[in-house]
Design a protein that fits this description.
This protein is α+β, with helices and mostly antiparallel strands. It has one domain (2-248). Helices cover 13% and strands 32% of the residues. The chain contains four helices and 17 strands. Strands 4, 5, 7, 8, 10, 11, 14, 15, 16 and 17 form a ten-stranded mixed sheet that branches. A four-stranded antiparallel sheet has the order 3-2-12-13. It has a three-stranded antiparallel sheet with strand order 1-6-9, with no helix packed on it. Strand 7 (117-124) and strand 8 (127-134) form a beta hairpin. The longest helix is centred in the first third of the chain and has 17 residues, at 2-18. It is globular. It starts with a helix and ends in a 5-residue tail after the last strand.
Length: 253
């Protein structure tokens, strides 16, 4: 019984931050919001992304990578993933992410203060994904210039009748909703940490929370501590299949 309590406490700590990313963008803690009511609920997309590096000095961004130059390698910590048909590398600006055809469900009118963070839900072709972003510059910036350092995808949240969850694939063919715990360990080795929790999805379900963390990549304080990496959750009730993948990379290399 004592062992179970310890595991549960550890799991709660891991979940405390990334569960915040399941909220819609109108609830994020940005500094200010344009009060204009024009087109408040329209989908907003950007087809002409610009480079944030010159303004912020953030030379570690991946905005300059062309989609055709990106592919999945066997290297876990290059932080490149496939989201449906798009190959994306973290970190990158929200503006660059939108250039892949993703849109915000709400008008992007907020700004982010220096050092601030927030989250946005993005949609494309009837699918949705949640991202965390920050502002590493010295000045307040429009939200669209914010840097995405975390992405979260899951296969169990069915609360939205309009959009389904996007499918994400990480290196070595590991896919949300298809790959299993054993396949993850075979691909990447034993995780940095592995914890279990009961009753997350259903009363009789047990999930395994696997953390793959590169502590050499220093960045935002998050559920990986001071490093960056992957949180992969599998469900024993569903045959040890992956039900959630969270990728975090805010390293400045």
């Amino acid at each position: 019984m004592q062992k179970h309590k310890i595991k549960t406490k550890i799991f709660v700590l891991f979940f405390a931050l990334f569960m915040l990313s399941l909220t819609a963008c109108d609830g994020i803690p940005f500094a200010s919001q344009n009060t204009s009511s024009e087109n408040d609920n329209t989908l907003i997309g950007v087809n002409d992304p610009t480079d944030l590096q010159a303004m912020t000095g953030d030379n570690y961004l991946n905005d300059d990578k062309l989609e055709e130059d990106i592919s999945l390698s066997g290297v876990l910590y290059d932080f490149t993933f496939k989201l449906d048909d798009d190959y994306i590398t973290l970190p990158l600006t929200l503006e660059k992410f939108l250039s892949y055809g993703w849109e915000s469900r709400f008008a992007l009118k907020e700004t982010i203060i220096s050092g601030g963070q927030g989250n946005v839900t993005l949609v494309k072709n009837g699918k949705k994904v949640s991202v965390m972003l920050n502002n590493t510059s010295a000045d307040e910036i429009p939200i669209i210039k914010g840097i995405i350092f975390e992405i979260d995808c899951n296969s169990y949240d069915e609360s939205d009748d309009e959009y389904i969850n996007a499918v994400i694939e990480i290196p070595k063919g590991i896919i949300l909703g298809k790959s299993t715990k054993d396949e993850v360990i075979k691909a990447f080795g034993y995780p940095t940490s592995l914890n279990e929790n009961e009753g997350f999805l259903e009363d009789n379900d047990i999930i395994d929370v696997m953390i793959y963390s590169d502590q050499d990549l220093q960045g935002e304080k998050n559920h990986f501590g001071s490093g960056n990496g992957y949180q992969i959750i599998t469900s024993r009730e569903k045959g040890d299949v992956i039900i959630q993948i969270t990728i975090t990379n805010s390293s400045q290399r």
